[in-house]
Amino acid sequence: MFIVNTEAAIYREGRYLLCKRSEKEDHAPGGIALIGGKVEMEEVPSDILERTIAREVAEEVGLVIEGQPRYVHSTSFLTDQGEPVVNVIFLCEEFSGEPYAVSADEVAALYWMTPEEVYEQPDARSF
Fold first, then answer.
1. Nearest Cα residue to 63 out of 123, 117, 9, 122
2. Which of 65, 85, 121, 127 is the 20 to 30 Å CA partner of 39?
3. What is the pLDDT of residues 7-61, one digit of tens each?
4. Which pLDDT score is estimated for 43?
5. DSSP state string for the chain
6. pTM of the entire structure?
7. 94 forms bridges with which residues in the sheet?
């Protein structure tokens, strides 16, 4: 069985919002990544991936996703503990608020980066 994970490619003015993961995270501590997290069981099963994106973005960086996130890409990986994960990335161009690290236990820092800047980061990871 796979864990299902979603990530938000939050885009504004030519840059994407990335976070430095907390050193307390079980998987990829200290890595640079998009904002996201695991899909959880919910009472309302429709649009679960999109709702997961909205929940994770609000919980981690305090933004409200508006409009409909657009599917970009999916991939798979193994966590540092060897668990298989399906990762689904969505583009989020409509949001409100200014991002901040809601919990230092999850997010150590936030960065707005161009794609070129992301590629230059040795700790950048796709989940």
1. 9
2. 121
3. 999 999 999 999 999 888 878 878 899 999 999 988 877 899 999 999 999 999 9
4. 84
5. --EEEEEEEEEETTEEEEEEEPTT-SSSTT-EE-EEEE----S--TTHHHHHHHHHHHHHH--EE-S--EEEEEEEEE-TTS-EEEEEEEEE--EES----S-TTTEEEEEEE-HHHHHT-TTB---
6. 0.90
7. none
Mean of the per-residue pLDDT values of the chain: 92
CATH assignment of 3-119, among 3.40.640.10, 1.25.40.420, 3.90.79.10, 3.40.50.10490: 3.90.79.10
**Is the C-alpha dihedral spanning 106, 55, 51, 89 positive or negative?**
negative
- CB neighbourhood size of 68 (10 A): 11
Tokens for 22, please give them. Answer: 């907390």
* Closest-CA residue to 114 (of 19, 9, 15): 15
User: Cα dist. 8→3, 45, 82 in Å?
Assistant: 17, 20, 23
- Residue 98, pLDDT > 90, answer yes
pLDDT of residue 28: 80
- Beta-sheet pairing, 70-78 with 64-65: unpaired
